[in-house]
Amino acid sequence: MFGLSVPGFLALPGFLKFGGRDPEPEVTVIGYDDVEALGRELDALRDEVVADLGAADREYIYRIIKAQRGFEVAGRGLMYLGFLPPFWLAGVGALSISKILDNMEIGHNVMHGQYDWMREPGLNSRVFEWDTVCPADQWKHSHNYMHHTYTNIVGRDRDIGYGILRMDEAQRWNPYYLGNPLYATALMFLFEWGVMLHDLEAENVIQGKRRWSDVKPLVRGWWRKAGRQVLKDYVLFPALTGPLFVSTLLGNATANVVRNVWAYSIIFCGHFPSGVQSFTEDETADETRGQWYLRQMLGSANITGSPLFHIMSGNLSHQIEHHLFPDIPAHRYPEMAPRVRELCERYDLPYNTGGFFRQIGTVWAKIFRFALPPSLVGRAPVSGVIVERRKTAA
């Protein structure tokens, strides 16, 4: 009746290990032929949706762009009444929504080439720019190429920890990682700047593995893009409101922080909750198409929610489907998800999904757990899938 309530993250198996043993994890084995059959079914699903792209998809992205611009105009306009707290809050809210839509449902998805088939210059992945400090070309390299090609391969996918966090058992612990929760919190509030610096590979610069000649083009890109963003949000628009300069500056800064926290949370929920699997370079060498698909499925996680929640997440709440089909318009993922889930059930594979608070809770549990030395926390039991990567002789 009067028992102590243990915080959820402390109650996770293996969080603090002072004796005893955790239960053995459940392991599923999938054969080579099944993996290839799965790949063919996913190819067929992709082809079916691509063949159906058309007017409805065009109208959808136009509606989102119209809404995004409307929220931005409203947010900027309300800042002229920022001396009244309700109007200031409304302006911050509208501007936050505008930036979230721009970055997630529009920018992220357009730069994946999801709307290149429309042949519209403003929605062309090669030239599109977004409302954030990271230059689009640098993001496309670190995200579209490095992350989506090497998803959850430790040592290749730099999104595992973003170069500053320990987020996987395979990352060797050292005392620096005691600050894991602090680094994660800083990254959350400054996420757009962390994304901008991602392609720098700061740890390699510190270790002397990257030269100034490698970094110089990146810095020039930052100066141009971040300079424009800072000028726009922290000088130009505040100046336009005259005596409300400081109020508008704070409003713009708050909207950027709201966008940063939201984007960080959605992205981390899709990549680091409990049950997401990581891989080694050796086991993923010479992958087949089916094995690539399977790695994307096992290395990602979804978030359940309402249609509005999915829009505000850029449909990255369907991270599994996004990793399987990164160049399919993301608003199609909700209709594809049940079929992907059915395939997982048929092939006895996990389909990692859950509510936002469940997923983000396990993410933060992992952040705290990996801050501590393995000798203290042990290894948490994690269910996994063993993939037969070579065809067995008959």
TrEMBL record:
<feature type="domain" description="Fatty acid desaturase">
    <location>
        <begin position="87"/>
        <end position="353"/>
    </location>
</feature>
<dbReference type="InterPro" id="IPR012171">
    <property type="entry name" value="Fatty_acid_desaturase"/>
</dbReference>
<dbReference type="GO" id="GO:0016020">
    <property type="term" value="C:membrane"/>
</dbReference>
<dbReference type="GO" id="GO:0006629">
    <property type="term" value="P:lipid metabolic process"/>
</dbReference>
<protein>
    <submittedName>
        <fullName>Stearoyl-CoA 9-desaturase</fullName>
    </submittedName>
</protein>
<dbReference type="InterPro" id="IPR005804">
    <property type="entry name" value="FA_desaturase_dom"/>
</dbReference>
<dbReference type="Pfam" id="PF00487">
    <property type="entry name" value="FA_desaturase"/>
</dbReference>
<dbReference type="GO" id="GO:0016717">
    <property type="term" value="F:oxidoreductase activity, acting on paired donors, with oxidation of a pair of donors resulting in the reduction of molecular oxygen to two molecules of water"/>
</dbReference>
